[in-house]
Amino acid sequence: MVLEATMIVVDNSESSRNGDYPPTRFEAQSEAVSLIFTAKTQANAESSVGLMSMGGKGPEVLVTLTMDFGKILDGLHRTKIRGNTHLTTGIQVAGKQLALKHRQNKSQRQRIIVFICSPIEEDEKTLVKLAKKMKKNNISIDFVVFGDIEEDNTKKLTAFNESVKSSDGSHLAIIPPGPNLLSDSLVTTPILSGEGIAGLGRTGDGEGGEGGAEAYEFGVDPSMDPELALALRMSLEEEKARIEKEKEKEKERLEGIREEDESAPLLSKDKDGELEGGASGSGSGSAGKKDKDEDPDKMDTA
User: Fold this and answer.
1) What is the pTM of this model?
2) Nearest-angstrom CA–CA distance, 268 and 275
3) Less Cβ crowding at N or C end of the chain, within 10 Å?
4) Pairing outcome for strands 109-116 and 139-145
5) Alpha-carbon torsion (43, 194, 4, 181), positive or negative
6) Of the candidates 120, 108, 183, which has an alpha carbon nearest to the alpha carbon of residue 152?
7) Whole-number Å distance between alpha carbons of 132 and 38
């Protein structure tokens, strides 16, 4: 799986107190953050995750890039709900946290995942300008939009997504209120599964808005059993890695056998320097015949 450095930005504005996503919007985000951390670090043990908030007086870096889940939980526990969101400033600060000097591995790809559950104050032009800057710096941006899913918010973020998208993928997941937990719905989005833009409008009977039952991996609906779906995906990746490792071992073994066969002589020599095997046998036969012909005591019976 991809080696990534991911900064997660949570929305801790006053809007996150709302209970339309049980138990509250902020608690729903906290569960989703835990899911993202687990998915990223299980997919690649060298991936790292950081945490930020963007409400109140301004963005705050809660946890720098880490592989320690305990630090992420502590950062969520220390987060206070207050004020309004500062989206553009939050993304800019997150981008600085992904700078090369902060990454533990230079080959890590850069990604920011932003949760938004409140109105966006910035205009579309400002957001598009920021999106182009992030794309230039090779930073992928994922948005998880829930709560205040207004047309104005959706339009601005769609414009941002279109401007920031690259080969590495930047995703826009829109998750309306419903019977499922936010973290359960997040499993079905490209943010964790990897492709396209998801607008997940799920109906009461559990059918997907964009994907359908035929799109589920392994025949398991991730919204019904997200832990099983994630475990199956991880198991598949581990099996692929094991098969590749076995192929490499077999290849090395065959190359070793070939080298041994090429280095071994076809015929070996005895201590007198004579060739052993069939050649020496025929030679002995000729010598024996010659000795027989030269035997002076042989009677002539002719």
Assistant:
1) 0.66
2) 6
3) C
4) parallel
5) negative
6) 120
7) 30
User: Rounded to an integer, what distance in angstroms lies between the CA atom of residue 21 and that of residue 28?
Assistant: 6
Cα three-residue angle 217-209-189, rounded to 5 degrees: 50
273-285 pLDDT per residue, tens: 555 544 444 444 4
Question: Cα torsion for 251, 252, 253, 258, to the nearest 10°?
Answer: 90
**DSSP-assigned letter for residue 247:** H
Query: Which amino acid makes up residue 280?
Result: S
4-10 sheet: strands from edge to edge: 60-66, 48-53, 4-10, 109-116, 139-145, 172-174, 198-199
Q: What are the start-end ranges of the E strands in the chain?
A: 4-10, 48-53, 60-66, 109-116, 139-145, 172-174, 198-199
- Helices 69-78, 25-43: crossing angle, 10 deg rounding: 160
Q: Which two tokens stand for residue 263?
A: 């280095």
Name the region of 189 (left: φ>0; alpha: ψ -120 to 50; beta: rest): beta
Q: How far is CA 64 from CA 9, 75, 79, 90, 280, in A?
A: 12, 10, 14, 14, 78
User: Which pair of tokens denotes residue 79?
Assistant: 């987060």
Q: How many residues does the chain have?
A: 302
